[in-house]
Amino acid sequence: MAKSIDKSAVVTTAVVSIGPRHTVASFDVDAQNCFTPVCPDELPVPAGNEIVTELNQQAELAQYRLGSKDAHSPHAVWVADQSHPPLSPVKGKNVDVYWPLHAVPGTKGFTLIEGLPEVTAYDFFVWKGVEPDMHPYGACYHDLADTKTTGVIEYLLVNKVKTVLVGGLALDYCVKTTALQLAKANFQVIVNLAACRGIAENSISEALNDMHQAGILLIKSAAQVKNS
Ligand code: VGL
């Protein structure tokens, strides 16, 4: 069954007004087929392919559209096997747990979900986790210690972006981490839950709480946002 996102007290249903002079960016985090039921052997997030309309709608509210993709080696050190099940710990500086192999360039799983723009149509795009011994979650840094920038924060700063609307996959991993990194860098961050799906009930609740605690606004859908 699809993991519906808990509409708990941390989610706002109010209209969010961001003002016409406020520069806004929209961020599609890892909206790739490997995180949808289209690729059942990778990391299928239930209903992960149902986020496209909302991602496109939130992008309509923004002057800039950014995106990220996981881009992994089939020989990565964190690839789960018989003796290393998914989510068991893996030793390494920039890896934490084993995952099923996903997002290998050249495969279907690597591609963006149908209905999203071509990669070249985005204003800024990031490929992450290319090194076989690195598996970052957030799109702002290549390493787990948040020291090697991907350029996302610099791009937003140069373009005087104040607010970032975030959606993508998976809510409880890469979306959460990206949103927290952006909030820490002092952007106003709004996570559009209709543009996200998550892996597991527990980690979804934890992600919503962590983001709320960090001052991130959690909205039900892009229709709540007014910027005029
Ligand atoms: C992701 C788990 C493993 C994500 C990536 O994109 O959220 N989650 N790798």
From TrEMBL:
Pathway: Cofactor biosynthesis; nicotinate biosynthesis; nicotinate from nicotinamide: step 1/1. It is an enzyme of class 3 (hydrolase). Keywords: Hydrolase, Metal-binding, Pyridine nucleotide biosynthesis. One of its GO terms (biological process) is pyridine nucleotide biosynthetic process. Coiled coil: none annotated. Its EC number is 3.5.1.19. GO terms for molecular function: metal ion binding; nicotinamidase activity. InterPro entries: Isochorismatase-like_dom, Isochorismatase-like_sf, Isochorismatase_Nicotinamidase. Residues 140-221 form the Isochorismatase-like domain. Belongs to the isochorismatase family. This is nicotinamidase. It comes from Spartinivicinus marinus. The lineage of its organism: Bacteria, Pseudomonadati, Pseudomonadota, Gammaproteobacteria, Oceanospirillales.
